């Protein structure tokens, strides 16, 4: 297919050409992959400036999205690629092949660095979903940091560089400029731009920005980052967000309240920190969805109300494909047991092509694994959130699988919300675009105060 880049894509491509290290902070659907590949094609074949490009991406994106883009466009057809995926034997075989672009999933970055050690061969590295390198303590970040000095070009791609806090920004920018703009260490960065927020003695649980720090940080990185919002560039069909209220009967509500009280009372006299707040939230979200795991990992069903609501939506779709996002394994098991036509997303099995051709009536996906880079907009326009997530990043990215460029139908996003449960706090946080962990902590504290009263 002949490619005519949009003006904003040309700008992105030129930005890469003009900056040895940079980040494209582009909303979903603005063509980060195409812009990057076009820049690489020019660097290889026009300027002769690049060889052995490494692309680090989420597994599903490394498996399919990048190679699909290369195959799709005429001007990229002569780019060769090798997928460094699968078993160690398969990965080593892929590395031994001569190619322009090598694709690897982010989980194998540490392995790749250990494999080459001082012989790191990739002078150009593209990090697709740069935000997955937001933790300075993660092995993948530490590994890539070791070999960063050997790279000539580093390109970071993401739509949400700091989904939880601007603290997340430091590792990502470090991989670009090696600490030139936001300090050489995370400690220096934290001390310069943040002050302790929630703490217990010397233990700091969270940090808040100093006055004026946000503007100062953005100014520091503005020369190597380009940011674009989809609403400013794309004319998409309208999207409707629909709340489907799920009502429990008296017996099921008593079960929920009893279990809620049991888990809340365990924390009543303890300090609420992120780890135990997440545990409590998890239990309550499971209950809202209809089942719960006990301490031995056994699954106990509490109610089927969300399954019934999902069934009504599937019936009303009248054969139109439905994309369902689930949260827990027991959600997946119960949905598949109830709806025999439902298929769990398997990228390796060709499910993306099958979905886009209308061959899968109900596709089941977890937002964390299907949230980045998958093009599903040709297959449908109806989304159902069976279970909700506190993560605004995963929520937005998952919805953008259908609500993106190339979508021809108005997108409908149904949210199954069990009334008088934690679901209501989650949907409120998502609607207000609140940061996940802070909203989670606030909801849990409010629930504890309710039972204290």
Structure characterization notes:
It contains 19 helices and 19 strands. With 453 residues, the chain is α/β, with parallel strands linked by helices. The protein has 2 domains: 7-233, Rossmann fold; 239-452, Rossmann fold, CATH 3.40.50. The protein has a 7-stranded parallel beta sheet with strand order 3-4-2-5-6-1-11, sandwiched between helices. It is globular and about 70 Å long.
Considering the chains and any ligands shown, give keywords for the structure.
single chain; 453 residues; alpha/beta; Rossmann fold; 2 domains; 7-stranded parallel sheet; 6-stranded parallel sheet; globular
Give the full name of the CATH homologous superfamily of the largest domain: Tandem AAA-ATPase domain
Give the second-level CATH assignment, the architecture of the largest domain.
Answer: 3-Layer(aba) Sandwich
CATH class of the largest domain: Alpha Beta
Shape: globular
What's the gyration radius in Å? 23 Å
Please, what is the average pLDDT? 87
User: Which strands sit side by side, in order, in the main sheet?
Assistant: 3-4-2-5-6-1-11
The SS-based structural class is: alpha/beta
Which stretches are poorly predicted, pLDDT < 50 over at least 5 residues?
Answer: 269-274
**Major sheet details:** 7 strands, parallel
Quote the beta fraction.
15-25%
N- to C-terminal distance: 65 Å
How many domains?
A: 2
Write down how many β-strands occur, each being a DSSP E stretch of 2 or more residues. Answer: 19
Amount of helix: 40-55%
Summed up, the helix count is 19
- Might you state the CATH topology name of the largest domain? Rossmann fold
């Amino acid at each position: 297919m002949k490619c005519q880049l949009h003006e904003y894509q040309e700008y992105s491509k030129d930005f890469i050409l003009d900056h040895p290290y940079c980040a494209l902070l582009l909303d979903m659907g603005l063509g980060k992959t195409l812009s990057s590949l076009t820049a690489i094609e020019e660097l290889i074949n026009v300027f002769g400036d690049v060889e052995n490009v490494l692309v680090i991406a989420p597994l599903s994106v490394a498996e399919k999205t990048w190679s699909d883009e290369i195959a799709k466009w005429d001007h990229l057809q002569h780019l060769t690629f090798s997928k460094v995926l699968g078993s160690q034997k398969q990965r080593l075989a892929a590395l031994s092949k001569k190619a322009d672009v090598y694709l690897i999933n982010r989980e194998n970055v540490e392995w790749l660095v250990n494999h080459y050690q001082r012989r790191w061969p990739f002078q150009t590295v593209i990090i697709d979903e740069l935000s997955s390198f937001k933790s300075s303590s993660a092995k993948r970040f530490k590994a890539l940091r070791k070999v960063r000095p050997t790279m000539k070009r580093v390109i970071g791609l993401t739509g949400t560089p700091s989904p939880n806090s601007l603290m997340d920004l430091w590792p990502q920018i470090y991989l670009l400029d090696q600490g030139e703009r936001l300090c050489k260490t995370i400690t220096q960065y934290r001390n310069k731009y943040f002050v302790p927020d929630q703490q217990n003695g010397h233990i700091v649980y969270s940090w808040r920005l100093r006055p004026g720090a946000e503007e100062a940080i953005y100014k520091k990185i503005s020369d190597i980052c380009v940011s674009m919002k989809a609403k400013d560039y794309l004319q998409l069909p309208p999207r409707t967000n629909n709340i489907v209220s799920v009502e429990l009967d008296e017996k099921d509500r008593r079960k929920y309240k009893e279990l809620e009280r049991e888990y809340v009372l365990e924390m009543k006299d303890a300090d609420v920190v992120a780890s135990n707040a997440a545990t409590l939230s998890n239990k309550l979200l499971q209950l809202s969805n209809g089942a719960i795991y006990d301490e031995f990992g056994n699954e106990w069903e509490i109610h089927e109300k969300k399954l019934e609501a999902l069934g009504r939506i599937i019936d009303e779709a009248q054969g139109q494909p439905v994309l369902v996002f689930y949260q827990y394994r027991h959600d997946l098991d119960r949905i598949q047991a109830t709806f025999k036509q439902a298929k769990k997303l398997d990228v390796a099995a060709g499910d993306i092509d099958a979905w886009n051709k209308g061959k899968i009536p109900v596709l089941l996906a977890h937002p964390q694994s299907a949230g980045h880079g998958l093009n599903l907009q040709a297959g449908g326009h109806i989304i159902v959130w069976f279970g909700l997530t506190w993560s605004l990043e995963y929520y937005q990215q998952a919805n953008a699988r259908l609500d993106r460029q190339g979508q021809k139908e108005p997108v409908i996003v149904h949210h199954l919300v069990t009334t008088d449960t934690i679901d209501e706090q989650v949907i409120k946080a998502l609607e207000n675009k609140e940061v996940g962990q802070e909203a989670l902590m606030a909801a849990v504290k409010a629930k504890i105060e309710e039972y204290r009263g």
